[in-house]
Every structure is written in structure tokens, then in C-alpha cells.
TrEMBL record:
All copies of domain Tc1-like transposase DDE, residue ranges: 22-109
Protein's name according to its UniProt entry: Transposase
Annotated TM spans: none
Taxonomic classification: Bacteria, Bacillati, Actinomycetota, Actinomycetes, Micrococcales
Domain of life: Bacteria
SUPFAM superfamilies named in the record: Ribonuclease H-like (SSF53098)
InterPro entries listed in its UniProt record: RNaseH-like_sf (IPR012337), RNaseH_sf (IPR036397), Tc1-like_DDE_dom (IPR038717)
Gene Ontology terms, MF aspect: nucleic acid binding
Length: 152
């Protein structure tokens, strides 16, 4: 789990320290929400972009969200992770860190990721779309034309 601060166009994309639980259950997600609640200044709404994983929809999570109305859940459609800017963040981690490193333990990997995030946050840059919606839809149309009927 990771949280990004993206309040307005042109605002630096600050990355909050990734949640450090190795398991990903409703219990850990609620702890993540509590941590973000403490880090984001009061008075600001928190918009969560999540996949459709059941962890985000348990009764305990729903109750917590009802009790914290500044939190707003947005679920990405199935098979659309490319729309999620957090996925782009993971792409940066992969390109800048993971492909160029070797870790002998999970703890070493986690330490390197925390260091990378800390360095990112010293000079954050905004995430921006480089294509228009029309260009993206045209690209998807070309992909569908190539793969339609291909037995997938």
C-alpha cells in the first residue's frame, strides 16, 4: 500500500512512506487508513484510488470510512491498472531501483524502497498525462483490432 499526495494540477507528487505490513488484509488496510488520516492535514479530503480487491470492501473498512467522511473511495475498473497513477509510481520504482539492484533479504529490499521514496520526496515532480484522451482511446482501438479473435 502506498499513498501519494496529488491535491491539485502542478502540485508535487509527494509519496507517503509505504505501509510496512507484509500481509494485505482488512486489518492492515484499516491501519493504513489511520496512518494516512494522521499524516494528511485536517480539513483536506482524502481520495483513495483502489483496485477491486475485497480487502477494501469489508464491513469493518466500510464502517471506518463511514466514521471518517473526509475519505472518499474510488475503485478502478477491472483490468485498468494503467489508469492508476500509483501504478505509474511502481513503474518508477521498478525502473529506477529494482532493475538495477540485488537484495539478499526482504528487509534489504524494504530499506532500499524506503530510501528511494525519501530521495523522491526531496524533489518530487508532478505526474502528468502525456497523451490526450482521444489518443489513448485510438491506441486502445488499435490494440483491440490486433487482438480481436486471436483466441485470447
Amino acid at each position: 500500500m502506498v499513498a501519494m499526495e496529488m491535491q491539485q494540477v502542478g502540485h508535487d507528487a509527494r509519496i507517503y512512506e509505504p505501509h510496512q505490513h507484509r500481509k494485505y488484509r482488512a486489518t492492515e488496510f484499516r491501519k493504513f487508513l489511520t496512518r494516512i488520516d494522521a499524516q494528511v492535514p485536517e480539513g483536506l479530503d482524502v481520495h483513495l484510488i483502489c483496485d477491486n480487491y475485497q480487502t477494501h470492501k469489508t464491513p469493518a473498512v466500510k464502517t471506518r470510512l463511514q466514521n471518517h467522511p473526509r475519505f472518499h473511495m474510488h475503485f478502478t475498473p477491472t483490468y485498468s491498472s494503467w489508469l492508476n497513477q500509483v501504478e505509474r509510481f511502481f513503474g518508477f520504482v521498478t525502473e529506477d531501483l529494482l532493475r538495477r539492484s540485488d537484495h539478499s533479504s526482504v528487509q534489504s529490499l524494504e530499506a532500499d524502497i524506503r530510501k528511494w521514496v525519501s530521495e523522491w520526496n526531496t524533489n518530487p515532480t508532478p505526474f502528468t498525462w502525456t497523451k490526450t484522451a482521444e489518443q489513448i482511446l485510438e491506441s486502445i482501438g488499435r490494440l483491440l483490432n490486433r487482438t480481436s479473435g486471436a483466441g485470447h
